[in-house]
Amino acid sequence: MKRFSLAVHGGAGTILKANLTPELETGYHAGLRAALDAGHAILAAGGSALDAVTAAVCALEDEPLFNAGRGAVFTSDGKQEMDAAVMDGATRAAGAVGGIFGPRNPIRAARAVMEHTDHVMLIGPNALNVAHAADLPFAEPDYFFTQARWDALQSTLEMRSEGCEDDDPARRHG
Amino acid sequence: TVGAVACDTHGTVAAATSTGGMTAKLPGRVGDTPLIGSGTFADNATCAVSGTGHGEVFIRYTAASEIAARMRHAGQSLEDAAAHVVMHDLAENDGSGGVIAVDAKGNITMPFNCDGMYRGRVTQDGAFETFIYR
Description:
The structure holds 2 protein chains of 2 kinds.
Chain A: E1 5-10, H1 22-44, H2 49-62, E2 82-88, E3 94-100, H3 106-116, E4 121-123, H4 124-133, H5 141-144, H6 147-161
Parallel strand pairs in A: 3-4
Antiparallel strand pairs in A: 2-3
Chain B: E1 2-7, E2 13-19, E3 40-42, E4 47-53, H1 55-60, H2 63-74, H3 78-90, E5 97-103, E6 108-109, E7 116-123, E8 129-133
Antiparallel strand pairs in B: 1-2, 3-4, 4-5, 5-6, 7-8
């Protein structure tokens, strides 16, 4: 038997270092820990790496502080579009979704593509159809909305309207 | 962008990544996250990788599978392969960001070339660690 391990990352959209308050920092650490707890519980019980990464990412998608699922950033049109992928190293099975909105956990939609279709990536209505067919939970727009992400969109659009160039690479991160 | 990589007690690795993309992105823009080999990759023979950062550069340099390729073809360690891709291939081509990666022995590496990367790790001994900056 080999030793298990797990790592997570949790990006937060356009968060600049100067704006990181102690409260936010505490929240990010707690969110990361919750994701580690979710995955660790599965691995410690002898579960699979695939289940562990799915559970860990679900925990991050459920936490509004992070830019995925609930709390996803907005496009320039004020909409949210989510992408996700999962891959199993034992078989190279993989599933991915692009530009979807509705499933509470996009990573589960990606896994449904992997497990219930012959394809690797689906976008648009058929990606959502696969998620529905897998009985995945969906949510209304209010669930995914966060004021911080909306404010970040307005700030970015205002900067663009003023013709300001922003070279901060943090703005190119998800 | 959020993600996870794991190695289980059977030596199988897996990767998962999920994102809302960039703030105020062009509608329809898709970054590296759902592109297998760019932002997400897993192969027991090498490693599992999940990336976060400037997606277009991760795509151009197929960042995740490049790490695996360095291990497979050049015999590099997980740490060396991931460091090269993040600190050279990406960093020298306007690709800020980082990756988390694990191999089938359970080794973890989490290199990044920007100010910080919100990240965490835990191993079988139960040592939980979370980090924001270096």
